[in-house]
């Protein structure tokens, strides 16, 4: 999934400024964004109160939507650079195509991981014959400078490791949790996990005190460190934690996101993450002129045009609130 907003505004991200060095409980509310005719997303990152969590720089939660009589997700070809996209579903299917020739149908609890590196383009759509419900999350991971010009590639992992406890099953999407490591390639210390809690469950997950964390609620009613987190909202937890207590009032699903606070200062505009105005401007020129980002073959429709750059220069900054 992409940022389809053609009135895009730049986001300043990164740097250790304003990273909570101790445990906090900061509830983030989403901004609602329409993607196409039938998909509305709840955007949690970037947020007015929090730009990043570790290297996680973009979080959209969508659904569950009844798309039985709708086209569902329809995101035309668009570019990315300087990041990884993580596609994660609870219901439905998404057909992924990209300019490296990557082609896959991503299904619930399977990892679709696209590393844009220096440049890639892709499309995402619900198959013509699709399930009734569509429910999932789309996330971006900022690539550190040493790896942001790597060759683009796509990974599809259908078998992911799990961590279990009474009433809890945790699927490790990216990075490592409690000794279980995802097969997905990561370029920065990070963790992403899907947590399924049974009604009445009380559990505690081990955390790395050097990581900052947040928890996104996908469904159900759960308390995270004593705070009720409802679907479509996210609780920022700061750093300095060794355990995370969880309690489920109903069957519930959460996503745990964490990582070392990202050191580098970034500019994020539309679907690109860079380090300077000039870099973003060149990416826009390359996309509009049809160079560098390649071609997505097999998608029935034109690519997305890039939004105009703002009148003032884009400047990389730290984590400002």
UniProtKB/TrEMBL annotation:
Which organism is the protein's source? Streptomyces candidus
Output one GO MF annotation.
metal ion binding
Protein name according to UniProt: Pirin
Which InterPro entries does the entry link to?
Answer: Pirin, Pirin_C_dom, Pirin_N_dom, RmlC-like_jellyroll, RmlC_Cupin_sf
Entry cofactors:
Fe cation
Which Pfam families did the record assign?
Answer: Pirin, Pirin_C
| CC cofactor note | Binds 1 Fe cation per subunit.
Which segments cross the bilayer? Answer: none
Where are the residues of the annotated region Disordered? 298-321
Record carries keyword Iron: yes
The family assignment reads: Belongs to the pirin family.
Annotated residues that bind Fe cation are located at 78, 80, 122, 124
Which keywords describe this protein according to UniProt? Iron, Metal-binding
Q: Pirin C-terminal domain: from which residue to which, for each copy?
A: 193-292
**Where does the Pirin N-terminal domain start and stop, copy by copy?**
41-141
For the keyword Metal-binding, the answer is yes
